[in-house]
Amino acid sequence: MTDNAIGYRLTTDDIEPLLDGMTIMGTGGGGSPAFGREILRNDLARGRVIELIDPDAVDDEATVVSGGYMGSTSVLDRLGFADLVAGWEERFELLDAVRVMEGLLGRTVDHLVPFEIGALNTPVILSAAARLGLATVDGDGLGRSAPETQMSSFIGHGISLTPMPLVDHAGNVLVVQQASDPTYPDQIGRRALSLGGGLGANNHYPMSGRQLKEAVIPRTISGALRLGRALAEARATGVDPVAAVAEQLGGRSAFTGRVATLAEREDEGFYATDVDLVDDRNDGAARLTIQNETMLLTLDDRLAAIFPDLVLMLDPTTGRGILSTELTEGLPLALVTVPCHPRLRDAAASATGRAAFSPATFGRPDVVWRPTEDLLLAAQH
Fold first, then answer.
1. Residue of 133, 154, 143 lying closest to 207 (CA atoms)
2. For residues 234 and 340, what is the distance between their CA atoms, to the nearest angstrom?
3. Could you give the C-alpha distances from 274 to 25, 189, 193, 267, 285, in angstroms and in order?
4. Number of domains the chain is built from
């Protein structure tokens, strides 16, 4: 698979490396790879074609939409992955949301693009596109995962989040037609889900192909597949898997230690926690602020990375991506920081982006974003 792949079709051999890569890039969130595996295996077993299209190959006049699933991880665990996927053969909420969007737009959708890269939220888009007979754009709105719908390159490049249809697990349909505050649709969506079974699908960011090309973080699905393959090769050849991940993504190893303490809570679909880590060998310390995904990292009380830059949580031995819900006291953890894509930085710097990406959304109104490479350089002096 090349960077300019057009019409690439996923196979069963792609599933594991793809999920490995997406779990790492999900920065602790993006959903369970076990769920993503169930989705992809089911679709391929049923003969569905999961096809990618390069962003540059999308027609300028095409209609592209994003979307995904919203809800609590505890609800997903309770309902069960296999049962949910089996139920989608009768009713798939994400397809219903796309149909509502088409009705609002007055035209059919040509392509779907993931909101984020993650082991669940990317496969659900791949599945919806395959069921519709459409190719999925090889890219997404972040190049990582994020906890809130307005946190996207799309919104920072002038693409409207609304209209946003939401179809919940109970069958209720809600449309946020317009919003004056970029955080409003996500807040309303989560409140609605709490009344409708705690799980649902949304559709959002309707855009043209021309808009897509200006805003999308390109080739992240194929990038996740390459990352997974590079990690598998590193394991097979005895190369340090954490170093292999850092090299593949243009990041740097920032910390290796163990989880000392964590204070966690779940609030309206978010898994939020502060995680303190220690490095017993070098007497170092780190702290992660997590809201589903890693949002902020300090090293010895100095800022080292701030969302939307990436902090990857990896198993130090295997390089496997660790989900935030897997964190427990004593867990060994390696942290890798990666600068986010320039398009995402540009989006975060826009007027709308400053509100959408504000550190206040994850409890740190005192923090002003600076590039992780600058923060790490300052921390070394």
1. 154
2. 24
3. 20, 25, 25, 14, 13
4. 2
3-state secondary structure 92-105: CHHHHHHHHHHHHH
The fraction of the chain above a pLDDT of 70, given in percent, is 94
Residue 313 lies in domain: 241-379
Range 333-357 burial, b when 16+ CB lie within 10 A, else e: bbbbbbbbbebbbebbebebbeebb
For residues 216 and 76, state if they share a domain. Answer: yes
Mean pLDDT of the chain: 92
Tokens, residue 238: 């005895």
For residues 92 and 206, membership in a common domain is answered with yes
> How is residue 135 annotated by DSSP?
P
**Distance of CA 253 to CAs 13, 323, 339, 375, 381, Å?**
29, 18, 12, 14, 17
Q: Single out the residue of 151, 172, 192, 187 nearest to residue 369, CA to CA.
A: 151
d(CA 138, CA 246): 22
Is pLDDT at 4 greater than 90 in this prediction?
no
Q: Could you tell me the pLDDT band of residue 180, with boundaries at 50, 70 and 90?
A: confident
Choosing from 187, 220, 253, the residue where a domain stops is 220
In a domain, 1, yes or no: no
Please check whether residue 161 is in contact with residue 94, taking contact to mean a CB–CB distance below 8 angstroms.
no
Reported as a single tens digit per residue, the pLDDT across 213-236 is 999 999 999 999 999 999 999 999
**Nearest residue to 273 via CA among 331, 318, 317:** 331
pTM: 0.94
- Kindly report the number of other CB atoms within 10 A of residue 54's CB atom: 20
Note whether residue 12 is domain-resident.
yes
Cα Dmax for the chain: 62
181 shares its domain with 265: no
Q: How far apart are CA 109 and CA 207, in angstroms?
A: 10
Write the pLDDT tens digit of every residue in 60-112.
999 999 999 887 666 667 778 888 899 899 999 999 999 999 999 999 999 99
